[in-house]
DNA sequence: AAGAACCGGAGGAGATGCCTCGACTTATTT
DNA sequence: AAATAAGTCGAGGCATCTCCTCCGGTTCTT
């Protein structure tokens, strides 16, 4: 309550030990949320940082704020990746490189997966960051399609599905085979390639981004009766 | 305690109303576990059946028993599908047909997904049923590979991964786009096809079935500290 | 009509998760 | 070195959730 998350200009600086602890909290949060997902407790984070729960709650009013503080910068990183990928000359390399990079990030960080693929937490900054990266991604897709390398019936809204699939494999097998997601992604990317002799068309062509948005709202929502 | 799940020969038949309620319970369980997964409560099942909780607990000693009673027969169905697929003359049609059928079943039934992809519940009958269908699946894979239609670096242990991926999409988008999993499966199957000019080999070739078994043990396990 | 079998759903027992509070410790200032 | 503002700690309150039991009342069967 009395303390902002970001070091605002008006707020006096933290005491040295407090600042040190603040960093420990963020590091531990990254570790704990990355491994156990956003369901992890602030008690867990505190314990992992070797601090008391009270200390964490003094610095961050609640879990939401801590999560938001952690992830906003990482989402910027992803947006930058998309822009950098647009600099790559070969359209297929650009697209595939971006996909590999983002899926790799997701595979290491369950919390990131959950925040990228869900809206159910209601962080404004996060939603904005996600919206901001759509144009670059759209360009990546369209460029690779124009070059005849990415199959034409793919759409930017397929990327969340790709992340969902690889992410679920990472979650499933991460404990025993941490790189197995690569196998699945390779398979998917071979399916994304434009093959001259391919007969099949993908079903469900009406896939629109706002359908995915709706899915993001319902996913991981506290269970509703019915 | 006093009542078995299966109608044993020695047990006297249920009273007519009790038998009717027993069926209602099983129907509701199928519905509820199918929609909300194995985390659903027996209270939910009872309420959905228009019965009291006590009635359910009188018939089934606990959740495990009810779940096992529900799913053993469905697992037999899947095993039968594999055997029937082996009757199909074209090896690719046989393999792809089997995959579509099973993924379709999974997509409709979250409980089935969870029980097929996890060992964490410890039902013996279920484990046996799963083991029994391995040979037929192996044959399906090898036959399609021998015919040069299925890419050669695929392995029976990839099927659980396929189910995991499509299942996660079904869970993700099921509320808003119930058929979207078909799109993803089509993509994956195009990736599975043996393409003559394909350069890439799948990474993680050491994938063995027992690695998947281990994953099944850890997945959906109650969270452990650390 | 009598007795056995059955039904219902409040609520006990136990987990779990979020967060507060007040006694205690440490840094900073003068 | 003393004063004081800032920070720390973790037991525990409150709320929620799930599994399951219990027993007064109901329904079936003979």
Automatic annotation (TrEMBL), chains A, B:
Q: Name one Pfam family in it.
A: TetR_N
- Name-wise, this protein is TetR/AcrR family transcriptional regulator
- What residue ranges are annotated as transmembrane? none
Has the keyword Zinc-finger been applied to this entry?
no
Entry superkingdom: Bacteria
Q: Give the originating organism.
A: Amycolatopsis ultiminotia
HTH tetR-type domain segment(s): 19-78
Q: Region Disordered: list its residue ranges.
A: 1-20
């Amino acid at each position: 309550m009395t303390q902002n998350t970001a070091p605002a200009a008006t707020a006096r600086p933290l005491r040295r030990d407090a600042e040190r602890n603040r960093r420990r909290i963020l590091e531990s949060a990254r570790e704990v949320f990355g491994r156990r997902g956003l369901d992890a407790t602030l008690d867990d984070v505190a314990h992992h940082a070797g601090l008391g729960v009270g200390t964490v709650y003094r610095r961050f009013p609640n879990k939401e704020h801590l999560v938001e503080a952690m992830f906003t910068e990482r989402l910027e990183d992803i947006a930058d990746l998309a822009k950098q990928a647009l600099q790559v000359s070969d359209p297929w390399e650009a697209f595939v490189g971006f996909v590999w990079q983002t899926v790799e990030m997701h595979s290491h960080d369950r919390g990131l997966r959950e925040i990228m693929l869900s809206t159910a937490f209601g962080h404004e900054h996060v939603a904005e960051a996600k919206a901001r990266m759509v144009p670059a991604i759209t360009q990546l897709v369209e460029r690779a399609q124009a070059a005849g390398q990415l199959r034409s019936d793919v759409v930017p809204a397929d990327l969340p599905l790709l992340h969902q699939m690889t992410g679920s494999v990472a979650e499933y097998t991460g404990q025993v085979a941490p790189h197995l997601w690569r196998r699945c992604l390779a398979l998917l990317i071979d399916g994304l390639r434009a093959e001259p002799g391919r007969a099949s068309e993908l079903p469900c062509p009406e896939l629109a981004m706002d359908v995915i948005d709706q899915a993001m709202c319902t996913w991981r929502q506290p269970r509703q009766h019915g």
